[in-house]
Amino acid sequence: MQTTTITTPRGTFGAYQFGTRHAPVVIALHGFPDTARSWRPVGERLAAQGFHVVAPYLRGYAPSPLEGPFDVDALADDLAAIVAAVSPGAPVVLVGHDWGAVIAYIALLRHPTLFRVAVTLAVPHPLAFLESLPRTPSQVLRSSYMALFQIPRVAEAIVTRNDFAFIDTLWQRWSPGYVLPPDARRALKDCLAASMPGPLGPYRTLAWPPQAALQRIAHARDGRIGVPTLHLQGDQDGCIAVAACVGEERFFSAAFERRVLAGVGHFAPLEAPDAVANAIVDWTACHGGA
């Protein structure tokens, strides 16, 4: 694993890279509360399979730009700029976990020619998620932390209190069978401490301003994703219920498949790196073209 920077017209993004530069490119996006570091196990496995993996820190996470905008359209445009810098003229394999998955879905709609295939983890297509809420009451409770994040200063105080104990609780709830190693936990908290309130930024654009949020939903409804997409979901995920992912296929015009990983929680790239890496390799081989 090597650290690098990616200079784009939208800012300079910190990243990790794995494998040789002339290999087929995989862009791997992290989520919350997480960092690009969590792609290391999968990145090393993909590099051994002949890929060049680039895992950038999202906007709002040091050492990437800490200022907004944080709406998902802007984050998708960040991704497009990163792809243009890393793989000019050649489409890439896109992998996204949690918020990285949300960014992936929107980027696949906004910039489809940049991507060969996509693999998303944990979070389903945003419209499938929204439509699942009335029939999945437990998901409303699981997602209640998002309401907290809407309250400026209060959210920051709660999240950072007692050395980010709130973040420890989320990891325990979301991946009950996994314990983040102490060095990785420290690195995560140090990143969050250097970044706050940036990591909360995307949540605060979900419903505000209302008109812009509604426009993003309408835009997502207008189009179906034409890039072959595989969605991986852990059956022990304490953040996203498996039932919240039902019906995603309606939002795709290209090949789509959903696979449930038995015994895996929310942070599949760390909990099941072999399964995740193998799924990426297989999906790319089947649907990624030359």
Describe it.
- The structure is a single chain.
- The chain has 290 residues and is of the alpha/beta class.
- It has a single domain (2-287), classed as Rossmann fold, CATH 3.40.50.1820.
- 43% of the residues lie in helices and 17% in strands.
- The protein is built from twelve helices and eight strands.
- An eight-stranded mixed sheet has the order 1-2-4-3-5-6-7-8, with helices on both faces.
- Helix 2 (72-86) packs across helix 3.
Summary, kept brief:
The protein has helices spanning 40-48, 72-86, 99-110, 126-132, 137-142, 145-148, 154-174, 182-195, 201-204, 210-222, 268-271, 273-287, and strands spanning 2-8, 11-18, 25-29, 52-56, 92-97, 115-121, 229-234, 256-261.
Provide keyphrases for this structure:
43% helix; 8 strands; 290 residues; 8-stranded mixed sheet; Rossmann fold; globular; single chain; alpha/beta
